[in-house]
Design goal:
5-stranded antiparallel sheet, 50s Ribosomal Protein L5, Chain: A, 5 strands
Length: 183
């Protein structure tokens, strides 16, 4: 038996279950996943030269399959010791096949590896988009285990075409995102 990719499942059984739950007949009116963005904030105090920056870029490249774009500060902030033009983050935006492959690995491999995992929170932004934070990048199997000083966290944002949060919750539940049970 061949394992179907998330993209194939979205067009087949997931689409059928969403039609029933949302009461729609037209498959084009169903919510979908537009893009997935992975962001890493780079803290100047933890940066020892360009070694940590290179490690973050290489790790993100292995996790997402794309080279991250470095983000620099647009203005100086003296309280945070940030100067204009300093690198303050790295970002990867995925669409298409890479996005679906990343979501499959996130849902079925990485999230179950999180220590004391009880599900992700159901907090949305009001427009159908979902963000979650990963504390340690080591939950992804693509990256070999580093020493403790090189562990970093990142934020994953899933942008959907849903009109509201309820539709987005139904879409992500159908995809397989393990939301936390309300107690």
């Amino acid at each position: 038996m061949k394992f179907k990719s998330l993209q194939e499942r979205l067009k087949g059984p997931i689409s059928d279950s969403l039609k029933e739950k949302l009461g729609r007949n037209n498959p084009n009116s169903l919510p979908g996943i537009e893009k997935v963005t992975v962001n890493v904030g780079i803290n100047k105090s933890r940066m020892d030269g360009s070694e940590m920056l290179d490690y973050i870029v290489e790790s993100l490249k292995q996790i997402t399959g794309q080279k991250p774009a470095l983000r620099s500060a647009t203005k100086s902030v003296s309280n945070f010791k940030i100067r204009e033009g300093m690198v303050v983050g790295a970002q990867v935006t995925m669409r298409g096949k890479k996005m679906y492959d990343f979501l499959d690995r996130l849902i079925h491999v990485a999230l179950p590896r999180v220590r004391d995992f009880r599900g992700v929170k159901t907090k949305f932004d009001g427009h159908g988009n979902y963000s979650m934070g990963i504390i340690e990048h080591t939950v992804f199997l693509e990256v070999p285990l580093p020493d403790a000083s090189k562990v970093f966290g990142f934020q994953i944002t899933i942008t959907t075409t849903a009109d509201n949060d309820e539709e987005a919750i139904e879409l992500l539940k159908a995809v397989g995102v393990p939301f936390r049970k309300k107690s």
